[in-house]
Design goal:
Elements lengths: L1 E6 L2 H16 L3 E8 L3 H7 L5 E5 L4 H19 L6 E5 L3 H9 L3 E4 L6 H7 L5 E5 L4 H6 L7 E4 L17 H4 L9 E5 L18 H7 L4 E4 L4 H6 L6 E3 L6 H7 L2 E4 L3 H8 L4 E3 L7 H8 L4 E2 L3 H13 L12 H15 L2
Parallel strand pairs: 1-2, 1-4, 2-3, 4-5, 5-6, 6-7, 8-9, 8-11, 9-10, 11-12, 12-13
């Protein structure tokens, strides 16, 4: 069986790593394409995956359109003469459009109901849509999703990141981090270049939070790109991590995570590390999932975030157990079923 997987964002590498390895071990023929964006290429190399580099990410709106259009053109040249049985992606703009045009059955994983432009361009074209049960089905239908093709599960996509996770408790030593304090906070800036968030890539909502909390804990910053790293350079007691790194072990080793994004916050919730979300955009249902379970605190008020952070550093938080569906098996089963039985 020949499977096409398209990777368009850094967290998607962790999402697909065990799926890729499973299909490789089963002897399936994989075509993996990836665009130049964030740490995708570094992470693919770190996991030892062969891939075809196709396209890049635009910053301004017209650039996003031009780059996506060019990427479709280049991908068609690569894939048109391949006999692909099924295609698989997570929020790829291009894969559903190409799969539909070339008659390739597609499995699409989504977790962001607020990515309006992306969802309108992709959801109507997919043969199987796998989404968390907490996302409002009617919201997806409003984008053109076929409810008969929608497969829902209990949990979020981050649960699959830890299928083969092995915790490295010596991660700080391995990274040669010179940390003077007894407590450590990992911070992740906002996804400033994303189409669904109106943000300045040279500013961060984390700046005033860092300014206060650096006096109480070691601060680790994991930037998304160079401009974000520059925001926090030269600040006392602040260490800027250079990806790719074992983020999962870092999250588990830290006393607290404060994130202005999404994926890493939810990873912290899965790992039961106290986490505060200060994401500046509209709250996602997948974040609400962990807030409802008492595994994530959310606020956009700087003082409230700081006070809650200090409370977490002093008092150990409760860690309620959560039970997820087997998302890994759900994806594997649907890929095989779609390849064998068609749409």
């Amino acid at each position: 069986m020949k499977i096409w997987i398209d990777i368009t964002n850094s967290p998607h590498v962790r999402f697909f790593k065990d799926i890729i390895r499973y299909f490789q071990n089963e002897g399936e023929d994989l075509i993996i394409t990836a665009r130049q964006f964030g740490d995708i290429y570094k992470l693919m190399d770190m996991y030892g995956f062969d891939f075809i580099s196709v396209g890049k990410h635009g910053v301004k709106l017209h650039e996003k359109l031009k780059e996506s259009t060019a990427r479709v053109d280049n991908l068609v040249d690569i894939l048109a003469h391949e006999k692909i049985d099924v295609a698989l992606s997570k929020h790829s703009i291009e894969l559903p459009r190409i799969s539909f045009g070339l008659g390739i059955p597609s499995v699409y994983v989504l977790d962001n109901e607020h990515a309006e432009a992306a969802n309108k361009l992709t959801l109507p074209l997919c043969d199987r849509l796998i989404a968390p049960g907490i996302i409002d089905m009617w919201k997806l239908i409003s984008y053109g999703a076929n409810p008969n093709k929608l497969i829902r599960y209990n949990g979020t996509s981050e649960i699959i990141h830890f299928k083969s996770f092995q915790y490295n408790e010596n991660i700080f030593n391995d990274l040669n981090l010179n940390l003077s304090g007894s407590k450590t906070i990992l911070m992740r800036p906002e996804p400033s270049l994303a189409s669904y968030l109106d943000a300045n890539c040279r500013e961060s909502v984390l700046s005033p939070i860092v300014e206060v909390l650096k006096d109480y804990a070691n601060i680790l910053i994991l930037p998304r790109f160079k401009e974000q790293a520059e925001i926090f350079e030269g600040i006392e007691n602040v260490t800027i991590l250079k990806p790719p790194v074992d983020t999962s072990s870092i999250i588990k080793r830290c006393d607290l995570v404060i994130g202005a994004g999404g994926t890493m916050n939810r990873e912290a919730a899965v790992l039961h590390t106290p986490v505060i979300s200060c994401y500046p955009g509209t709250l996602l249902s997948v974040d609400q999932y962990y807030i409802n379970k008492g595994l994530m605190f959310r606020s956009n008020d700087t003082d409230e975030v700081i006070n809650k952070a200090l409370s977490f550093l002093v008092n150990s938080a409760d860690k309620p157990e959560i039970h997820h569906d087997d998302l890994f098996k759900l994806i594997i089963d649907n890929v095989y079923d779609l390849a064998e039985n068609g749409k």
